Task: structure prediction
Amino acid sequence: MGMNNSNVQEDFILLGFSDQSNLEKILFVVVLVSYFLTLVGNTVIILISSIDPKLKTPMYFFLTHLSLLDICFSTSIVPQLLWNLRGPAKTITALGCAVQLYVSLALGSTECVLLAVMAFDRYAAICKPLHYAAVMNQQLCQALAGIAWLSGVGNSVIQSTVTLWLPRCGHRGLHHFFCEVPSMIKLACVDIHANEVQLFIASLVLLLLPLALILMSYGHIVKAVIRIKSVQAWRKALGTCGSHLMVVSLFYGTITAIYIQPNSSYAHTQGKFISLFYTVVTPTLNPLIYTLRNKDVKGALRRLFHRDLGS
Result:
């Protein structure tokens, strides 16, 4: 028990990119600009989805949740990262590390499930167009969003708690820029094989299972469009699903590289840059992807802009 109490009291050192001092200055500017764009872009999507009556659909209901997730996910990591990039101080308090671990893992896990829910919504829209309104009713949408949030929080409570209770024997230096499970368990001074297995199983459930559901949804969508044999149907499907597919590719393509692999192969430098992509870059690109590729969002922005000019 005393060892676990000492674990709680220790501050951590986020080594991050401290071995590349010149890169830190560049990263500070890039991360700061990206964070600003993340806040602005996702806030705009939340506002127009709430205000514009033409966007009161299940797709934009889930997109609002995705934007909220991206804002909170970035905020749980980026301010601390900017502080560490700015000066020589690389420490984070034990409480700050614990909060960051719980919150970032909960939000990241929630996003995995939410992207699968959004794929199901696209499946219903294209494959069941006549029954879409009945299938994706308000109660089901709220239930699916609730499942996404609860699964993310549940995974975080289990994984983070188990990780924080590992004895570290005074090890405090994290080869990372934020408190993340794969790097945290490497500080343990006991056999972590069971933790690696637990992390792998959790990753299978919350990463590969949603990804499999996404692929199944798009498999049915492709079959439905092929049966129609219409160029217009292909264009409509691409316009409806293109943005979501790009977001899924960016998020899953990077996060699976961190979590679906043995801990022993978690390379310090490679892992940090991959994590930088899905924690900083992806939340910045998501609103741009949905804005630039989506006619409804662009139309809502134009209506909002003209209404403000008129007033």
